[in-house]
Amino acid sequence: MAQKPDPGVTRYLNEAGETRWRVTYDLPPGPDGQRRRTTKRSFRTVKDANRFRRDALTRHEQGLGRDPAQGRQRLGDYLRAWLDGLSVKPTSRADYRQSIECYIAPRIGGIRLEQLTPEHLDRLYRSLETNGKRRGPCRTDGHTCQADNCHPDLHDGLSAKSIRNVHGCIHVALEAAVARGYLPRNVASLANPPKAKRARSRNARDHCWTREQLVAFLDHSRDRDDPLHALWFLIATTGLRRAEALALRWDDLDLDRNRLTIRQTVTVAGGVIVWQHDAKSDDSERTIALDTRTITVLQGHRRRQAEQRLAAGPGWSIDDQDRELVFTRPDGTAIPPKRASQLFTRHVDAAGLPRIGIHGLRHTWATLALRAGVPIKVVSERIGHADPAVTMQVYAHALEGDDATAAETAAAAIFGD
Known about the structure:
By secondary structure, this protein is mainly alpha-helical. The protein folds into 3 domains: 9-65, no CATH class; 75-190, Tyrosine recombinase, N-terminal domain (DNA polymerase, domain 1, Orthogonal Bundle); 204-403, hpI Integrase, Chain A (Orthogonal Bundle), CATH 1.10.443. Helix content is 46%, strand content 10%. The chain contains 15 helices and 8 strands. The strands form 3 sheets. Strands 1-2-3 form a 3-stranded antiparallel beta sheet, with helices on one face. It has a 3-stranded antiparallel beta sheet with strand order 4-5-8, with no helix packed on it. A two-stranded antiparallel ribbon has the order 6-7. Helix 4 crosses helix 5. The longest helix is centred in the C-terminal third of the chain and has 21 residues, at 292-312.
């Protein structure tokens, strides 16, 4: 007995005069809440059409209804629209945009969303491994190989870590497409990005100075009248992050009560300095005490800055909230984080000390504080860790030997030695 067509399943003749079946069914409501319908054609049998309709209704009931019209858009167009509507920090937006414009869109951006397969992504990742790194004029954001008379074959391979960042961008974007009903599944989950090579494990111990090395650096910086001596000194005595220290305003410091408050950070996104008024985590926004030596250094720095401002006259700059930054260029403008790191390395080399980054000053402070017996909870709170367990994991080297010390101390207490 012939199967009867379900509601919404109708017969028609194609251009060749052959009988075909079509299915009309509901899509998820649009953004305005209005009902939407679509039609799927070219089923050879009523049985196939009925099965498709029932599957579509099941997906709709489970919240998985699809919007085929959206699935037909090009991958590059979808990724740009997705990014435009995404609420993320400026740095994350810049990273996503670089992945889209430099690595994804030029190579597979023309593929329709619904036609994208894991194999497309695997081939993309392999090609990036071979010649993904941009060179010459096309390194500049917004430039392409075609515009600069370049060719990808002239490029070096992109690192596994960078390719995994590209994969992460695709995965997050396609996950949104699935949630919105544009796609039935996330094909990025089936792709095989390269595994990032595990570098030699380097913990905080590898980025630390000894107490003698730290003092030698600070003395060298002071003796050479380094304009950023106060910056190095502050990080070395508080464990602040680079982005936190460079974003400090004088309003954030209370030199009379010997304390400072972290309220914002500074970073660079797309070549532009960006102020982020939400801290890295809830624990990153904090108030910490300052020692008297650091207060003295900061007071001297403020006097020096006042002289610079007087010399600059109307050319002196203030931040976007009319509050002066603690650490600036000679004209009052913000110091880009990367520039601060370059200057720090220059002074480290001049002092003849082992190279560590600015973050190494933070590691050095935490390590020396723990070795001096400062409770790990206090250290964790001062450096803005969300959990003392994180501090314990990062700075375990600073506590080596504590077990033996505890054994001897406990035994002495028991036996009265």
